[in-house]
Amino acid sequence: MAQPEAGSDLSRRDHDNFQARRVVKVWMAFYNSNRPHSALDWRTPDEAYWVSREEQKSSMKPKPDAL
N or C: which end of the chain has fewer CB within 10 A? Predict the structure, then answer.
């Protein structure tokens, strides 16, 4: 299969798709890490879900004196 020419529509679409994926990735990182949500008591999704998940994991580990 031949490569698209530098100025072709396919080449521009590939670049536009790359740009769109990059913009969405940056927005999702901001949305989940930096933007507080009223439904989460003004915490970020990362604070609300990842911190509680880590707490759950640590509480499930057996305590050394319990062995």
Answer: N
